[in-house]
Predict the 3D structure of the following.
Amino acid sequence: MAVSDTCREPKGPGIIETRALTRQFGEILAVDGVSLEVQPHEIFGLIGPNGAGKSTLIKMLTTLLPPSSGAARVAGYDVERQPAKVRTHIGYVPQLLSADGALTAYENLLVSARLYLVPRSEREARIASALKLMGLEDAASRLVDGFSGGMIRRLEIAQSMIHEPEILFMDEPTVGLDPVARHAVWGHVRRLRERLGTTILITTHLMDEADELCDRIGVLHAGRLEEVGSPAELKGRMGPDATLEDVFAHVTGTEITSGGSYRDVRQTRASARAHS
Amino acid sequence: MTSDRPAPAHAPIHEPAIVAPIAGYITQVYAVADAEIQKLRHDPSELLTRALQPAIWLLLFGQVMAQVRGIADGGRYLDFLAPGILAQSVLFAAIFYGIAAIWERDLGVLHRYMVSPAPRSALVLGKAGSSGVRGLSQAVIVYGLAVLMGIDVSFAPAHIAGVALFIAIGSALFSTFSLIIACIVKTRERFMGIGQVLTMPIFFASNAIYPIELMPGWLKAISSANPLTYEVDGLRTLMLTGGTTKYGLGFDYAVLIAVTAGLVAIAARMYPRLTG
């Protein structure tokens, strides 16, 4: 992407800034001194193998988990001291299911509109436009239980965008989706940025997803941020014909394994079942 | 850098300084409670299956125990038992909230609530409120059973309103208690074990199915510290024609409200632990 070169040298204050951000679970350093700056309107991808600390990092940035040390500012607010302020400015699509299957799509969106205090007079219009943006107009009054995996993801994005946050965090947004649904989600993510100027931080372990979607990528390995740059830059550092897979293998010393843990397998299978 | 950020499509939400926070808080409580109520509306089968338990207690246990002399100091035992069973069905329905919270955490739905700007106490109160609605639906069923069994139920509007208030507060109290337990044990397996261990003593160490006067001194002391005792006392006063209170209705309400307030404050602090 054309913007990526200009984004390499941060020009202004980042909309997400972390300084030596660290999270420890007992003896394990899940996130180890990560300093990161994400610019407004960027689509920033965090890649890394399972257990690299992607989800832990995102949980700290979304105020779900307090850091052990270091600091992070999101949308200009400190995640530890002003968590409520941070929350009003961000949207979050967790790796797990966040749409309630026992409710309809409309009801799910209504919950979000109320939680984020969208004024009552604007609620219906916002819900309608969120459904339209995600291509779910016809499914509004159906129970989410009957949705495909791709539809659920799109609904979850709609839910997390109902208050039009400056920043959207997405943890493994296309895990368990088939290629068609995956491309549809990518298209919707791009459109969000175009329409609303949203800054988007996603985690993924899919190299084609990172390559296609992200302006810049950070490679996380064993809790440390090892490389940051545009996909072209990262590949360029490796050699003329390098792929992101090569970058990944070089940094982490491993092949990409998707769905390495029991939990991942269970989740992938569950999504697959929901989709069939 | 901020200059080239597109203006948000909607202006930030500004409302009068004092009314808005309170109205907002109520909206957020309602968001959580209403989601639960809509789920019940979509699938009310849970309410019917829950009706079986009080029916069994009244029909089997009650009929046999009514033959034992001296247990209800001269009155009819079924009259004595009915309010106790009402309290019990409310307690059992409310204790289910902890495991539901763990379930929501496992799915990911809870993360969505936790990243929202809603104060954690609003989330807890929302759950407590929906528990109240469940409790009230239980009450309708127990009232129906009681009438069928010839129990002298009072339908004076003031009595009905008083009972509804007792049910709502009692449901809120025990569902919040259950939520706290869930925040401590964190897994479904452990909760299932501990849930049984906790419900039984709350039920048996109370005046629900026999008068406190029959208890040995140490058990009397425990019962007097058990909030369920005050709920049963209130229900026994208001549900039956000519019911009398042992502790005074004002005192019953005061105990229940104070305990509920304390538990909500504790739960609001502990709830985020589930997603951490």
The radius of gyration of chain A is 18 Å.
